[in-house]
Design a protein that fits this description.
- It is a single chain.
- The chain is of the alpha/beta class.
- The chain has a single domain, classed as Rossmann fold.
- It has eight helices and seven strands; from the N terminus they run αααβαβαββαββαβα.
- A seven-stranded mixed β-sheet has the order 3-2-1-4-5-7-6, with helices on both faces.
- Helix 2 crosses helix 3, helix 4 packs parallel to helix 5 and helix 4 packs across helix 8.
- The chain is globular.
- The two termini are 18 Å apart.
- 40% of the residues are buried.
């Protein structure tokens, strides 16, 4: 660990010890989806001492992301999410190895991600079919896998929980994932923990733009990032646009971060470190 990293992580090392800090620094993590949940998870991991991190997301920053996504500000609208987040993470630890990949994780692109090369895979993806594919592939890999379920339509932070996937109750996304897997006859290869919340509130407001010709997502003929994703957006493919709050998505992300950090810590203690 470099001199600057020793200084950055002084308070963490004071708690967990130099040996476990070394384990944090050697751990390889990949996060799929760096929106309202994944962006907070990424920052928490880097601030905790994870120095090998890959972040994957296809989107550019939309003005509607500003209420909950860490790197989204009025100054970064239109920029590629993973690129902006990478720069922020490098401001926290300039020595970190941060790989930013602007890509949609799908059945077509899954083969481009060698999940066995990572110690932890984090799922913060929104798309149902892509989330199923990631769950199946990640649980078949050597990596430890953690999953974020739906973080929209929630306000009460005291209802955020962690449970094994098959034990999640009261989460519509969790139920939809299990239903699709059972219907398709494709089940996860191993058990995994999910961050979820059983609160489901109605939208009290109205969305008149997202998914329509008045959509606020940035559009242009030229711009940063992959040209094929320049005007890509998810809103029009969603049955409903749901409201979100910053504190809930941030807690989801930090819970995922905490699961990784605690797992490394507990494994180290149990192995005699």
């Amino acid at each position: 660990m470099s001199t600057i990293e020793k200084a950055i992580y002084n308070r963490t090392e004071l708690l967990v010890g130099e040996d476990i800090m070394d384990l944090f620094a050697k751990t390889r993590v990949i996060i799929f989806g760096v929106g309202g949940v994944g962006s907070w998870c990424a920052e928490g991991l880097v601030r905790s001492g994870i120095t090998h991190l890959t972040i994957v997301d296809s989107d550019r920053i939309c003005i509607t992301n500003v209420n909950r996504q860490l790197m989204a500000t009025t100054r970064t609208v239109g920029q590629v999410k993973v690129d902006v987040l990478r720069q922020r993470l490098l401001e926290i630890n300039p020595k970190a190895d941060i790989t930013a990949i602007q890509k949609i994780y799908s059945a077509e692109t899954a083969g481009e991600f060698p999940l066995d090369e990572y110690d932890y895979v984090i799922d913060a993806v929104d798309s149902l079919k892509d989330k199923v594919r990631l769950i199946l592939n990640a649980t078949a890999s050597k990596a430890k896998f953690y999953c974020s379920l739906g973080a929209a339509l929630k306000v009460d932070p005291l209802r955020i929980k962690v449970a094994e996937f098959w034990n999640v109750r009261g989460c519509p996304l969790g139920a939809a994932l299990r239903k699709k897997m059972k219907r398709d006859g494709t089940l996860p290869s191993k058990k995994f923990l999910c961050v979820y919340d059983d609160e489901v509130l109605p939208n009290r407001g109205h969305c008149h733009s997202c998914g329509t010709e008045k959509c606020l997502c940035p559009k242009s003929e030229v711009g940063p990032g992959d040209p094929s994703l320049l005007n890509h957006e998810w809103c029009s493919s969603k049955a409903q646009i749901n409201g979100t709050t910053a504190h809930v998505t941030a807690i989801f992300g930090m819970m995922l971060c905490g699961l990784v950090v605690n797992d490394i810590y507990q494994r180290a203690l149990n192995s005699g470190h």
